[in-house]
Amino acid sequence: TGAITLDPGYKNSGSCTSDITFLDGEEGILRYRGYAIEDLAEKAGFLETAYLVIFGELPTKAQLEQFETDIRKYTLVNEEMKNIIDGFPKTAHPMGVLSSLTSALTAFNPKVVNVENDKEMYEAVCKTMGKFLVIATWTYRKMMGYPLNYYDNTKGYVENFMHLMFELPTGPYKANPVVIDALDKLFILHADHEQNCSTSTVRIVGSSHAGLFASISAGVSALWGPLHGGANQAVLEMLEAIQKDGGDAAKYMAKAKDKDDPFRLMGFGHRVYKNFDPRARIIKKAADEVLATLGVNDPILNIAKQLEEAALVDDYFVSRKLYPNVDFYSGIIYRALGIPTDMFTVMFAIGRLPGWIAQWKEMRVNKEPIGRPRQVYTGYPLRDFTPMEKR
Ligand code: CMC
């Protein structure tokens, strides 16, 4: 087969062609299906953006209503799924539970495994959008020991997220519209990001013709790691640790620059953005607005500000083009909205779901070959077998 080109981490290899997301890391540009992320965050809703990402065009009013109705049809999750949830300890991390529950959905929805035509593809999309939101919030209910909630057909998708998470049998619950708006924006900003680690995982698992739920379950696992989606939780834990340690941001800057110390400044740097992450810019502004509207005065924000200001003028960070990324600010908003830290990466997963679905669909529609990277072998040449007694 000739020489293999080695590219660890696929820093310079394209794995597919894609019509979904355009990203220019040097210029800090992000577009879904040709539409600027800034416009979508300002003018569109999350389901509208999901429709665009998955089907390629902005929906008409009728198409969007139909999409929402069709998703709603599939929001009931089989009651037997509760047996699976019961088996987890309350201390289980929600991302592990979410990945398992997503995989378990295949058992109850075999059609999502063998998508054979456009109609089945559309149903698989709506089922995934409907059921994933519900089970994502169930990971929180489990952690808290609360009874599980059901989707409320009188409310919108993002409002349902708040209801599913926070409504208790003991009293009525009304989500703050400012919070719903902010979440809508956050989900839009996370909706797709071309061939990132979790999306590449979804595509590569799907390339073996594994089903949509199985592929997305693998994507959830990939997202969990602190170098990817898990960074939003890691950022908050880092800020809390700095606060506990006396609030000395400079000390942690020094640790991050020390090559003998494995500590990295969480929420800084990006494989593709070598300029400000455009999502971070929008989220930062949204964070300021939400915190002002909700009257939140969080001391952790001061530490975040100090780190950001110091990094932006520090030689180490400037020369390596390490700017704050989306995860640096998203955790700060989630915290202000009352979302517990362990749920931050689940929030990312809910937002990223349309992207995973769209990329899986594109991979199947384009009839891509099975993903099967090569390697450069660096082990032993042929060796004589050593019998047990001679080892
Ligand atoms: N703190 C300190 N040094 C860093 C950091 C950081 N956060 N990020 C990169 N570096 C250094 C790294 O040590 C290396 O230095 P040198 O050239 O001297 O060896 C240089 O910058 C290049 O880093 P890299 O690890 O080769 O770059 P990468 O493209 O492989 O990694 C990254 C990208 C995002 C994994 C990395 O920047 C990182 O670990 N950041 C912290 C975790 C984080 O915030 N992740 C969220 C990413 S955005 C959303 C998402 O994907 O979910």
**CA-to-CA gap between the ends?**
36 Å
- How many domains? 2
Q: Any ligands, ions or cofactors bound here, and which?
A: carboxymethyl coenzyme *A
Q: What is the rounded Rg?
A: 22 Å
**Percent of residues in beta strands:** under 5%
- Average pLDDT level: 94
- The low-confidence runs, each spanning 5 or more residues with pLDDT under 50, are none
CATH architecture of the largest domain: Orthogonal Bundle
> What's the count of strands?
3
CATH topology of the largest domain: Citrate Synthase, domain 1
Biggest sheet strand order reads 1-2-3
- The portion of residues assigned to helices is 55-70%
Give me the CATH superfamily of the largest domain.
Citrate Synthase, domain 1
Structural class: mainly alpha
Quick one: overall form? globular
Along the chain, the helix and strand elements come as EEEHHHHHHHHHHHHHHHHH
Molecular structure report:
This protein is mainly alpha-helical. The protein has 2 domains: 18-225 and 341-365, Citrate Synthase, domain 1; 231-336, Cytochrome P450-Terp, domain 2 (Cytochrome p450-Terp, domain 2, Orthogonal Bundle), CATH 1.10.230. It is 56% helix and 3% strand. The protein is built from 17 helices and 3 strands. The chain has helices spanning 37-43, 46-55, 61-73, 81-86, 94-108, 118-144, 157-166, 177-190, 197-206, 212-224, 231-244, 249-257, 278-294, 299-313, 315-319, 326-336, 344-365; strands spanning 21-24, 29-32, 35-36. A 3-stranded antiparallel sheet has the order 1-2-3. The model has no long low-confidence stretch (mean pLDDT 94). The structure holds carboxymethyl coenzyme *A. Residues 9, 196, 227-229, 231, 256, 264-271, 320, 322, 325-327 line the site of carboxymethyl coenzyme *A. Belongs to the citrate synthase family. It catalyses: oxaloacetate + acetyl-CoA + H2O = citrate + CoA + H(+). GO terms for molecular function: citrate synthase activity.
